[in-house]
Every structure is written in C-alpha cells, then in structure tokens.
Amino acid sequence: MELTDIQKLAVFQAAMKVIGAEVKTGDPSNLRGRVDNELVSEFGENGTDRRRITIGGKNVGTLTVTMTEPKEVREVGIENYKEFIKWLTETEDGTDLLWTFVCSREVTPLLRCIEDVLVVDGIVPDGCVVRTHNEPARVKGTVLRGCKPRDIADALGDSLPDVIASAIALPEGK
Q1: Cβ contact 76:115 at 8 Å
Q2: 47 within a domain of the structure (yes/no)
Q3: Domain that residue 163 falls in
Q4: Do 59 and 13 lie in a common domain?
Q5: Neighbour count for residue 51 (Cβ, 10 Å)
Q6: How far apart are CA 32 and CA 143, in angstroms?
Q7: Confidence at residue 24, expressed as pLDDT on a 0 to 100 scale
Q8: What is the mean pLDDT of residues 43-48?
C-alpha cells in the first residue's frame, strides 16, 4: 500500500504513542521499567552495572546503571527544646529565624529553615546540634546508549517489518 505524507504522519504518530509509552522512563510496568528493574536487581545481587545489547550477533547499544555521587549530608536536630525555644524567642538571631520562617511563602519545616538560614552562616542555635553523615553512592537509574536506527535495521534485516508491526500492535480494545 502506498501512503500519502499525511497518512504516513498518522501512522508515525500512532507508532510513536505506542512505542513512547513502552520506552518512557519512570514507569516500572512498561518495557523500559521492567528492563531497568532487572538490571538494577542484577547490580544489587552481583554488581553487574551494564548490559550490552546484541541483535543478530551485532552490538547495537548498551544499558548502564547510573549512580549518584557519594556526599556528606548535614542535618540539624534539636536536642533540648527548652534551650532552643529560649534562643528562638530571646535572641536576635532566633527572632530573625522565626520571622523568616513565619513570613516564608513556602511551607518549610523549621529545621530546614535553620539549616538554610543559620547553619550556613556558622550559627547553631542553643539546644540544637549539627550532625553529618556520609551518604554513599546509590542507584539513580539507567541510561540507554546506541540503538541507532540504521544499526537496528541492519541487525534485524528482513525481519524488521514484522518486529515493527508487532511493536505497535495493540491488544483488542486498546
């Protein structure tokens, strides 16, 4: 069947909707989510952090686990509420903090406000303590590289049309 440009547009748009839903990140129930979860599980079990993707013996891409950087985290905790309340209500720094907290357009927890406004300047309120701990690197997600259309088409060869057709075929009622 020969298609006009507008008909091709409709077909490509429909294919993009179906395929896009399957490759979208952040959805554990779609194809990408299932593959990502499998690799992340392998990483946790045996340290496998990447998978080479081969089709018909040809390397067409890789899926790799991405990690956050380890970092030092600083948190403020209140150890003595009476001392903290006294500091908050009877010192200039405390009343400034209280004013900032009350007038904030955001609903920010008071401890976060202390971290943002005072600890950055080296002021630790009476009754409070600053604790630091190291947060190790953790899995952030995955990244898919390669998968160039020409490489995939060459690897699939004559089966390309059937694979594409099955990729965009929907179950009854969808």
Answers
A1: yes
A2: yes
A3: 5-69+137-168
A4: yes
A5: 17
A6: 10
A7: 93
A8: 93
Per residue in 15-50, is it b (16+ CB within 10 Å) or e — as a string? eeeeeeeeeeeeeeebebbebbeebbeebeeeeebe
Q: The tokens of 12 are what?
A: 């490509």
**Do residues 24 and 62 share a domain?**
yes
Closest CA to 116 of 88, 135, 97: 97
What is Dmax (Cα atoms) for the chain? 83
Lowest-confidence region among 24-38, 46-60, 128-142, 160-174: 160-174
* Total residues found in the chain within this entry: 174
Judgement on whether residues 101 and 142 belong to the same structural domain of the protein = no
* pLDDT tens digits for range 70-123: 999 888 788 898 998 898 889 988 888 888 777 766 655 767 777 776 666 777
For residues 25 and 67, give the distance between their C-alpha atoms in angstroms, rounded to a whole number.
16
Distance CA 68, CA 49 (A): 13
Q: Is the pLDDT of residue 33 over 90?
A: yes
Find all residues with CB under 8 Å of 28, minimum gap 6, and list them.
34, 36, 37
Considering Cα of 25, then 27, then 29, then 30, what sign does the dihedral take?
Answer: negative
Phi, psi of 167 (to 5 degrees): -70, -35
Residue 19 lies in a domain: yes
